[in-house]
Amino acid sequence: MIDIVHACDAIAGLLDNEVSPTSDSLAALGVLQPGEPEYMMTVIPKIANEVASLDETTPGKDTGIFRVASRVLAPHSTLSEPTKQATLKLQILRSTGNADYEALYFSRDGVGFIGASKLRENSMVRIRVDTPRSPIEVLGVITLCVSEGGAHRMEAKLFAAEQNILRTWLGFYASLL
Predict the structure, then answer these.
(1) pTM score > 0.70 for this model?
(2) Which of 14, 60, 171, 173 sees the fewest Cβ atoms within 10 Å?
């Protein structure tokens, strides 16, 4: 049991620090048996999607979890620099109905956006950004939510992005001026 907990902790640490893990980076942890890194690469996106489904809250409803204000000053941004400005339609995909937001800026590892409905920090979400070429769908973790006037500015960092999705994201980011 201790070995399992140790392996899970090491994998969680890798996922927290690496936008797009590979079977090689999983194997380099030294906590998995031969063949397990490749298997984990098929399981991690499924687990992340399930967690995103569990983290869903109904947009626009106050669940009470936002009533106690933090006394810790929030950072201006949690995304890597440089960020690039681009105003695009962004949706948080939910089984109960998608929530519309406006993307404001992008980084290599995430997106900043604004909207009327708060999203809980540290929640996992499915995101669709309508880019000029085609929509990009990614999993992300909400890393920042600050109230600005009557709206809420949020940031989401990519989470466990598959290599082809990460290439598409980075290509889009590179195309921004």
Answers:
(1) yes
(2) 60
